[in-house]
Amino acid sequence: MKKMESELLQYTNDALGIIGGVATIVGFILAIKEPQKRYFHVFYLLLIALGVSAATYQFSINAKTESVERQADALMNDWRFDYTNRGFVFASLAFLEKNRKSYPDSYSRAEQACKNFKCDDPKSDMDMVDLASTLAGLVKGLGTLSHK
Question: pTM value?
Answer without folding.
Answer: 0.62
